[in-house]
Amino acid sequence: MNIYDSSGDIILETFIDVNLAPIANPPIIVVYNSPKDYPGKYVARLWNIKNKPTRMVVLSDSLAEIKKMIPVHMILVPPVASDDSVIVGSYI
């Protein structure tokens, strides 16, 4: 079940078994720790190839749980020094 929050984000239970290709090709999922829009939460947000965030997110209280919600075929790319400090990494 999808939930829409007050910001207009679509909060998914998981990204697993979701066909991401029509929305973002190739899909990129960026994981954040306590961003301004979701303080105290880990957030995984789908981005499209044009470096634009989509409204599709997954939320959790733990990084371990967020990792379980990302398709296993996606590869973690660690953050670089120029990334925002709340970015944990990106999955491609």
Task: State mean pLDDT (0 to 100 scale).
Answer: 91
Beta-strand percentage range: 35-45%
Strand element count: 7
**Helical amount among residues, as a percent range?**
under 10%
List the strand order in the largest sheet: 1-2-5-4-3-7-6
How many domains in all? 1
Q: Which parts are unreliable, with pLDDT below 50 for 5 consecutive residues or more? A: none
Distance between the termini: 24 Å
- Overall shape: it is globular
Query: Nearest-angstrom radius of gyration?
Result: 12 Å
Count of separate DSSP helical elements: 1
Order of SSEs, N→C? EEEEEHEE
Largest sheet: 7 strands, mixed
Structural class call reads mainly beta
Structure notes:
It is a single chain. By secondary structure, the protein is mainly beta. The protein has a seven-stranded mixed beta sheet. It is built from one helix and seven strands; from the N terminus they run E-E-E-E-E-H-E-E. A hairpin with a 3-residue loop joins strand 4 and strand 5 (52-60). Helix content is 7%, strand content 37%. The protein has one helix at 63-68, and strands at 3-4, 10-12, 28-33, 42-48, 52-60, 76-77, 87-91.
List the topology elements.
Elements: E1 3-4, E2 10-12, E3 28-33, E4 42-48, E5 52-60, H1 63-68, E6 76-77, E7 87-91
Parallel strand pairs: 2-5
Antiparallel strand pairs: 1-2, 3-4, 3-7, 4-5, 6-7
